[in-house]
Amino acid sequence: MPITPTPPPAPERERSPEDPAMLRAFLLGIAEGLTASDETTDRIQAEVVAVADAYGLDDVEVVVLPTIAIVQTGRAEAAKVSLRSVRASFRFDQIAAMAKLVRSAKAAEIGPEDGIRRLNEIGAMPPSRHWFMRTLGHALLVSGLGLLLAPSWQGVLVGFGLGAVVGVAKLTRSQTLSLILPVAAAFVCALIVFLLAPIVAIGDPLRLLIAPLATFLPGAMLTTGVRELAAGQMVAGSSRLGAGVVQLALLAFGILAAGTVVGIGQDEYVPREVQETLPWWIAGIGLVVYGFGVYLHYASPGRSYGWVLLALVVAYAAQQLGTLLLGAPVSGFVGALAATPLVLWIEDLRRGAVPSQLTFTPAFWILVPGAASLIGVTEGAVEESAGIDDLSTAFVAVMSIALGVFIGSALYRFLRRSAAGIADFHVDLPRVLGAAEGSVLSRIADATPAVTHPHDPEPDRRRDPEE
User: CB of 60 within 8 A of CB of 71?
Assistant: First the structure.
């Protein structure tokens, strides 16, 4: 009985050449997701190009701005361009999921169609924390930061209450309300603090105000803008700096409006000397509480808390060391220089890797480059010369942190390449020196042709080394 031959298996369909539109949409989605993750524009471009290379697509051009992403595939008449406006802002759990997807895409482990589905799932992810836990997290975040900025039990209690109020307000999903939220939060917090200042010993009112408004401060935005300008991303860097200045102006306007309602004098806007009313080791508790608040409020993945706490400790300790050695204005340079290689190393771990945004963003708030800016803008509205001095100090702080990030990144890349070069070091031995028993000289002798004499009936027999 004849046997019907089994047909050969169908060849696997190549994704890149046959479905360029799907791949282009996938690349654009990755650019949009990384932009929503608050990644720098140059890093986004590099990641998208790396994904395109993994799928065999060479002709790719990527343009990324803080609110728009453009991807072009092909050349000349065959070129296709796709663009998308970016308005979303991811939580930490979404950023972690996005980083995992990008790693899979860079290894071509997921098809473009499945990748687009995964992008939509990430965008629609519900918060992994209940609203009450996220509100509690913001209150703890503010309390921990208050222990670092204005260390007093009265200030901690006031900060906890203000943090809870702002935490509830930040849960709103309305984009219209989110635009006025910084002004409203600054007004309400300043109103409460100015009214309590004559009654409760809360210390410096302006320093205490920084804690509940910390998540609105554009410190990371200003520093990222400076980094992008230095990297040649003029449009992105300038737009971030402009947005940061506007954000500071809105916060200062809310504080001044509250001061006008309460009727405080000009001297209340001048920063006071910090009076240490708590032991020095309270700062450690403040870091732990602050890190746990970030973990709850931003719905961070479970494995990230330990790494976030480590980055906070390193950044804060290095900043304190920089204050002793170089002074307060440039202490952020030492903090950023120490924290940057650490967070990049955590991001590159094979197991348990955490995206750098999850560890670096809280460290930025510890360094607080926007804090001095907020004080300077507020004070400058009532006393011009003092405001200029504080703004210049804030500018030096931002530049020093950006420089620390640059040098720290370069140092980490140098060390990583050096370590990879040592690991890949290998010299191939010649064939005659291949792996075999005996000494090298004996192997060379074995590979040498036998020498014969014309009068000898047979060639010389080499002596056996065992004889």
Answer: yes
